[in-house]
Amino acid sequence: MNNRYARLLQNLHTGIIVHDADMTVSFSNRRAAELLGLPADSIAGRLTVDPTWYFVDEKGRRLVPEENPVNHVIATHQPIRELMLGIHRTDKTEVTWVLISAFPEFASDGRLEQVVVNFHDVSHRKRIENLLLETQQALASTLDAIPDLLFELGKDGRYYDYHSPRTELLAAPPHVLLNKTVAEVLPFEATQVVMAAIDEAHRTGFSHGRQFRLDLPSGEHWFELSVARKGVDAGDASRFIVVSREVTERHRIQAELEASKSRLSSLIQSVEGIVWEADARTFAFTFVSEQAERLFGFPCEDWLAPGFWIEHLHPDDRAWVPDYCASCTKRLEWHDFEYRFIARDGRTVWLHDIVTVVAENGEPRWLRGLMVDVTRRKQDEEALRLAANVFTHAREGIAITAPDTVILDVNEAYCRITGYTRAELIGKTPQMLHSEQQTQALYHDIWQKINDTGYWSGELWNLDKSGKLFATHQTISTVRDADDKIRNYVAIISDITVEYEHRQQLEYAAYHDRLTGLPNRNLLSDRLQQAMIQCNHRQQSMAIAYLDLDGFKTVNDSHGHETGDQLLIALADRMKESLRKGDTLARIGGDEFVAVLGDLENMSDYELILQRLLAAAASPIKVGELTLQVSASMGVTVYPKDKVDVDQLLRHADQAMYAAKQAGKNRYHLFDVALDEWQRNKNVMLMYARNAIERGEFEMYYQPKVNMQTGEVIGAEALIRWHHPERGLLLPGDFLPLIENQPVAMEIGQWTIVSVLAQIAVWQRLGLRFLLSVNIGAYQLQDDNFVNLLAGLLAQYPDVTPALLQLEVLETSALDDIVKVSRTMRDCCALGVSFALDDFGTGYSSLTYLRRLPIEYLKIDQSFVRDMLFDPDDMSIVRGVIGLADSFRRRVIAEGVETVAHGTALLSLGCIYGQGYGIAKPMPASQFLSWIASWKPDATWIGQVPNRQM
Question: What CA–CA distances, in Å, run from 695 to 163, 723, 724?
């Protein structure tokens, strides 16, 4: 061996011995000699086995020669790494512990040449391990002596270790427990308790006192937790020490105590009164049951304040109650008494107090008692006294009967009202007062109501002792005993004869016309309401006729109001006679009447009655020396065709009456429900439309126009849509006709032009240049300021090419004032815009007028295009329009191209431009560009040569 390396190996702290294949030591450093206890210069040349030392394993067993590491390596040619062995020298008792590694080295021919053995002294570590083992054993012995369950858990509740001398208390076998979470082992409620304790310990460092229950094979067990985190700070804690102490017996005892306390509390609470205790020397309460707070409103702790009870005695009782109690207490006497106490809300409560005195050494020490609320009894006693007074002195008559209605007693007022004496009434029944004004069926219904509800109240006509009728308001009540059996009946009667007659007069005046005696507006409204119910029930109709006399004012002015009144009286009688028995005629003021004609099976049933009514109103009337004649204008509406309320029915009939007057008088006019509905819809639509622009509810959709022969998109028509807040998305036909010729139509028309100009500007910036057309109405086109308005709008968009804007006008609106419209259109063309004549063919235009209008496009109305494939007349019209456009050198575009067949037919006629659902539906601007990118015309259209050229 090289001397340099030999010196290096000699100085190593690790022992090294090199053995030849025959187990002879060829080299050993000093450390190896020290570990073996041999002189350093005596090892070389020796055999591995030496009588002065031997190896032992960790259990102290001496190794046999075959187990010697060198022998093992020579025999197996396999290395040994870090084998723990003890070197036991025969001259010492202490063992030196080393980690031995032995490695074989081979010659080039594969023959084992030598074995290199390393010795690393680990005696110190071994001693520490032994000490630690002893400590652990001591700790285990200590823990085994503790009856509690000990666990190490993670923050997520995972079991990492446990110690328990009583495995029967574990929720799962030990081999199942480890590496499981609490949630996987314990029931839900127990898991919640454990995790809450871990969370508290994580936050505060410690948790104590939380309990949970487990149902184990040995029965129910309760445990109490103590949890501490292992880390110093909450942020460091990932493990927790959990001590689970069985507290089943303690829990049982505590539960029994709680149950006993609960039974006692329940017993006290079930007592109908307040259980209390007080100091006999000061009258200060030391305990009151919870009923005190429920009864008086004061918290129980308020009662314990000195002087509280005396302070809240009723002022009239405060003068004697304390002295009375003191006197009885001094004599150690049991006592009970009644007094009043003022509750927190100011109520006065009557109490019956039963008091026992408890003595110590012959002196009163405690007062214990029971307060019972007797307020109801006191009130009942007072009520009985009051009832006796009321019965005797009441102005109403009162009769008390037995269950068989035999009279037991009556008061003085009952005798005065009926004319009978008390002696004449007792022993009889109230049937002696019955009159024939009521039927037996009514009396049967009265007693049925009393038997069902225990009460009846109403008005009856009775006979007094002299046989005279008198009206009464009568109440009959049933009195039952504690077993719910009928004990008595009590009847209370009042003589209302005078009031009844006066009320009848008032009711007649309230519901009838003072002059004619006919029903007035109040009674008319009621009868109309009832008639509407009958119509709905019987599925019939009724007519409401509103009459206004023609010429009555002249009679009044010429002959005076007295003559006019006489004429009204006579006319009322005459018109009433012309009606059927079930009909109603009412005067609602002045010379205005309303007739209600019910039970109409057919709509024509009322016509004959109305004619008779008109004839009655127009017949000459003799008033004194005068013969007077007037007529009537009538407005009629029919329910339920006109399905509105009473007031609306009268208003509708009134509107129709004015139409009858305007039509020449002495006739009737039928209210037009459909026209009224249209007008109301129009008014509502106008109201909403006025604010729709500000609210941003309008949006422009665009329907493409294409050259069907080439597939080129030549433009689009801008069509308005309304996102109505209640009705949803509305098309132009749903609202434009209703606002036509209204100022708001001008505002919407201006908004549409602005929207289209803005869209042209957007698409121009994207490099798209095609024609956008927008509809303008006649009201807008004929406005004197339209040209200036259009010029101003174009000026707001200087980047927009005016030629890209086209205005579409209806044929009929363009011809209303051909001279003015033609001038307006030419002035607009001077601004750079163009015109298209929309719905061409639906009007009645003169060819001369058509020639005078600066129109670039004629649009064939879609109603002709849609039906042209199967209607020869429509086909002829389409062919004629195309011919006219050709003659007048106008371009023609067809609306309503819904199918490929439509496009093919139009191309064959020479119309190459089209729009319609067969090409594309109207769409928001956001979808238009993607549509252009994907648009392809039908293959049969491409390159098709028309029969006639444009």
Answer: 75, 10, 10
In 859-949, which residue ranges form alpha helices assigned H by DSSP?
Answer: 862-867, 872-887, 900-909, 925-934
- Name residue 206's beta-bridge partners: 228
Residue 302 half-sphere exposure toward CB, CA atoms < 13 A? 14
Helix, strand, coil percentages for the chain (3-state, nearest 5): 40, 30, 30
* CA 100 – CA 119 distance, rounded (Å): 5
Q: Which two tokens stand for residue 264?
A: 């006692």
Q: What is the pLDDT of residue 841?
A: 64
Residue 789 contacts residue 750 (beta carbons within 8 Å): yes
Secondary structure tally for the chain: helices H, strands E: 35, 38
Which residue type occupies 930? S
Give residue 501's identity as a one-letter amino acid code: E
| Per-residue model confidence (pLDDT) at position 47 | 60
**Which pairing describes strands 274-279 and 285-288: parallel, antiparallel, or unpaired?**
antiparallel
Outline where DSSP puts E strands in 29-131.
Answer: 53-56, 80-89, 95-106, 112-121
Q: State the DSSP H helix or E strand holding residue 88, giving kind and residue range, or none if neither.
A: strand 80-89
369 contacts 271 by C-beta, under 8 angstroms: no
Q: Measure the CA dihedral 642/644/647/648, to 10°.
A: -60
In degrees and rounded to multiples of 5, residue 10 shows phi and psi of: -65, -30
- The partner residues of 698 in beta bridges, in order of sequence, read 722
Q: Are 21 and 112 in contact (CB under 8 A)?
A: yes
Q: Which two tokens stand for residue 710?
A: 């080439």
Let me know the angle formed at the C-alpha of 423 by 418 and 426, rounded to the nearest 5 degrees.
Answer: 80
Looking at residue 46, what is its pLDDT?
A: 65
∠ CA 152-156-157, rounded to 5°: 45
Whether 882 contacts 910, CB under 8 Å: yes
Identify residue 50 by its one-letter amino acid code: D
The residues pairing with 279 across neighbouring beta strands, listed in sequence order, are 366
Entry pTM: 0.38
Orientation of helix 552-559 relative to helix 561-578, angle to 10°: 150
Q: Long-range pairs for 425-430 at CB < 8 Å and ≥24 separation?
A: 425/399, 429/401, 429/405, 430/399, 430/401, 430/405, 430/491
Residue whose C-alpha is closest to residue 721's, from 938, 923, 424, 455:
923
∠672-674-680 over CA atoms, to 5°?
A: 105
**If we measure between CA atoms, which residue out of 373, 392, 396 comes closest to residue 384?**
392
- Residue carrying the six token digits 């030591």: 25
User: Could you tell me the two tokens for 691?
Assistant: 């604010």
Question: What gap in Å lies between CA 497 and CA 503, rounded to an integer?
Answer: 10
Three-class secondary structure of residue 588 per DSSP: strand
Strand locations in 285-334 (E): 285-288
Sheet of strand 397-401: strand arrangement: 407-410, 397-401, 486-495, 469-480, 455-463
CA distance 497 to 366: 69
Tokens 């036509």 label which residue?
A: 740
Helices (H), 551-604: 552-559, 561-578
Over its C-alpha atoms, the chain yields an Rg (Å, rounded) of 58
Q: Tell me the angle at which helices 521-538 and 497-511 cross, rounded to the nearest 10 degrees.
A: 80
Which amino acid, 216? Answer: L
**What does DSSP assign to residue 433?**
G
Whole-number Å distance between alpha carbons of 406 and 415: 16
Q: Is the peptide bond before 737 cis (omega within 30 degrees of 0)?
A: no
Residues for the chain: how many in total? 950
Q: Cα torsion at 463, 468, 469, 472 (round to 10°)?
A: -70
Helix H, strand E, coil C: the string for 769-807 is CCEEEEECCHHHHCCCCHHHHHHHHHHHCCCCCHHHEEE
Q: What is the pLDDT of residue 144?
A: 63
Whose structure tokens read 């009557």? 350
Ranges of the chain whose pLDDT falls below 50: 234, 844, 949-950
**3-class SS at 9?**
helix
Give the type of residue at 4. R
